[in-house]
Amino acid sequence: MQSNAPTIVSSGGSSASYVEEYVQVIKSCFSKDSVIGPYFYQLIDYLQSDSTSESRMNPVPSAIRLRASSDLIHQTYAPATQPWGLDIPEKNVTQTQAPCLITIEGLPSPSCVAYLGSKYGLRPEYWLGHLSLGRQSPTHDKFFELPALPSRRGNIVQVLIPFLGRRTGSSYATHVSAIERLQAQQKLEEWDRHLFQNKKFGATRLRKLHLHSSQYFSIEQLVSFTVCTRTPNSWVGIFLVDQGLGVPETQDTPWSKYTRNRQAPDFLPILSYNESPSGYEIQSTAREMSPSTPNPFHPRDHVRVASDKDLDLLRESPFAVLASLLGRAAAGWAQILNFIDSDIDKCKIPGPSPTTEALGSALEQLRFNLDFLAHAEQSLKDNAYLIEWHGSRTWPGHQEYQEATLGAELASTLLLDTQYLIRRCSELSHRCESVSQVLSDTINVSEARENFGQTQKITNLTTLAFIFIPLGFVSTFFGMNVNVFEKNPSIWIYFAVALPFTGSIFFFYYCCFHRRLWRRSQQSLRMASNGG
């Protein structure tokens, strides 16, 4: 990725001309290295797939102009009933020198990508990383380019926002099987392909869906952020958020199975402790949300400043906006880690008299928690890197924000929280491993007991067969068609022959058994004497 922040370029024309213009920009990125062309052609194919027509579900771009404390203005552009307004942001945003935030909700349409890309000179990696075009088709080429090296991410920032939800209609939490988790993942992939194939531009996307138990689940949504510079003291920040327009209640979504009558999932709220009242707040227009749409984090709804100094920092550096995003992500991860902590305690004691199946289910749950903790730790480490670098060194006001007291304090607090969560992930992983070891030992002991019981049963059957085999042999002998036995000898003759014969066999077995015991004892004595 290019490390320099893109500068705003002048452009104008129709939707098709924006597409053609941005396609040329994309091709110039691999003009000197054709080997990487297939990676960028993903975006070119997406732009050319729907360059003229527009779906009824369009993303609603919005902008915030950061000017004076008494003039924090939020404006929404391009109503959903119209095609993406190509001229509105140009005449309302770029003519002012105040910093500006632009937010695109849901799946961006090709015309939206082409317009913003050509107008603000955005790198193709910004769109490719957010769109994740490889998810729309199982046979699509995979490049495994993300996450990129820190030195190559440049001014492109991506943050995962987790939400912990409660499944309606479930009052008791039980473990979830691996098959059900696999089905949920397949449902999520089918939903993403449905959005692309049916051109549901502006619809809500999910990046991950985790089934923690029969009562709780979590989702993750992606927020991508980049900065374009106009002048040394003016910048435009562009947000891409997965949360978008609602979907019809009849639409089968990945979260439909976990709600009653296709209502909105019940997400647990994030509680704020000791938060001081905000002096100023960026106003947000009301948006119509479908009942089947998750409750999102939205950047513009969480940008708050407490004083004129904070507002000055907000205008000078985009990191102040990114800080609210990272703070919300940290709070979400903390909530889920608290849930996993309690879940480990439940796995430690599956029940008063747990069966082998219950112990195996608890062990599988702990393995799932281990995988989730590794994923959460990696996401938090990426966030810690963003905090240490204050987003990107190429952003305007980067040095001034680092030297500012409020900016340094904000970054220090965020880094402290993030490092605490990273350590907690490691501690919970160690707990999962230790409890898993105990459960594994318990399962082994339980299986050994079951095997011993089965061995005892087999021994009893062998003993019973050993008793009846001699008797059966004698019965077979007397039942043979022999002239001596044609007069049907008395039953007492059978017992007179069978009992001594069976007794002699048992005596022979007894002698052999005790002889083996005597040999073992002699070997033990010799080993003991040699050792002494």
TrEMBL record:
Membrane topology field? Multi-pass membrane protein
State the UniProt keywords alphabetically: Membrane, Transmembrane, Transmembrane helix
Gene Ontology cellular-component terms listed: membrane
For the keyword Nucleus, the answer is no
The transmembrane residues are: 458-479, 491-512
Q: What is its main location?
A: membrane
- One MF term from GO for this chain? metal ion transmembrane transporter activity
The coiled-coil segments of this chain are: none
UniProt xrefs under InterPro entries = CorA_TM1_TM2, MgTranspt_CorA/ZnTranspt_ZntB
What this protein is called in its record is: Uncharacterized protein
The record lists the organism as: Metarhizium brunneum
Organism taxonomic ancestry: Eukaryota, Fungi, Dikarya, Ascomycota, Pezizomycotina
